[in-house]
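Honest question from a wet-lab person: if I give you the sequences of every part of a complex, can you actually get the arrangement of the whole thing, not just the pieces? Trying it with mine:
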Amino acid sequence: MAAEPTLTPTISFAAAGVSVPTPAEDRVILEPTTLELTERRIGVIGANGSGKSTLARLVNGLVTATTGQVLVDGLDVAKHGAAVRRRVGFCFTDPAAQLVMPTCVEDVELSLRRSEKDPRRRHAAALEVLGRYGLADHANVSVHALSGGQRQLLALAGVLAVEPAIVVADEPTTLLDLANTRRVADLLFDLEQQLVLVTHDLDQARRCDRVLVVEDARVRFDGPADAAVDDYLASVS
Amino acid sequence: MSSTGLVGVYQPGHSLLHRLPVGAKLGGLAILSLSIVLVRSMPASWVFLAIALLLALVARVRLVTLLRAARLVLLMAAFIAALQWFWYGRDKAIETVVDLLALSLAAVVVSATTPVNEMLDAFIRWITPLRRVGVDPDRVALTIGLAIQALPGTVALAVETRDAARARGLSKHPRSYLTPFVIRVVARAQETGDALHARGIGDD
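Yes, you can. This is the full assembly:
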């Protein structure tokens, strides 16, 4: 009998680890990790350099596991990277690195190039996406002229334009002021997509269904948000 | 930092130049540029500058955009003109400055009336036959688009790095500025590569 389709995509880590060779010895960035992520809102917290971003980047193949494997809806990220990236959108901390076209509408059009070949329809679709995220008035504005919050919204619009099933966001509010942090966080938490959120903002972490605490290249705690945040706070006090 | 002044300055509009196909605009720019370079006479130089200004007027390019482009070119042209004056005399120096100004203003008119994506689509159409010899038109077009976009970003990094060096009292040592600048440009290139990879661009 065929399995029931799941509403939330499944991200599986099967002893997935990352290490890099150094002249002295292999440096472990993430210990072999086994996880099954099916919750709708998954938080990842931990100190700088603990391995959070590496864990997040494994999900869409920005980093390749050197041991084990990562599967997204059963697809091996290492072998089916292109198919996985169609399912997984990734939002970076610094939107300046993510915005690669001169104007807002052109940047969203870049995301849509693969799905919409007709330039007019693609342009119209990009304008529609900008409107959805409150950036319609900035369609022809240079991406360099936007505020930090607007840039992050635009980066998100570019990611969401192709309607991925999963959104991975790596500290998307770290560079933003309070108002924009709330705006971007609310947008992320209102998404229908599964969200993997790497964050230092413990209020955001508490809004998640499940939180992983990463420390020294391993997941030291995995559980409900409040318990995970309390564990993290205890570990740094 | 909105742009370097010469590229990435698209201004939406409905002028005749906005409505012209990309091929006609780039073809026209190529012909005008060749004419400016090949026709060597002072009166012709002023005529070419007048044509460039007329095109800017027709396209309703903002004055501030033209001035920014002119300012950048004049800085470069002043140096070249000084050499020309020394070697060939005053007339040659003036002709060179006027020619450079006309070339840059014509380029600004094209970029101000043509969205980058429209240019990329045109490039893709033109080089699609090269697929047979292994050229990937989408990648070539994307590379051009990235090159255009990288300019203002790189200028912004240069300004930030210079300010950081000044803040630490290191402004007199070129190495203290150039080394971090190069490192930051490489890091930004890496980040941009990651961003493109994450968006699945280049996967197909």
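Two things worth pointing out. DSSP finds nine helices and ten strands in chain A. The radius of gyration of chain A is 18 Å.
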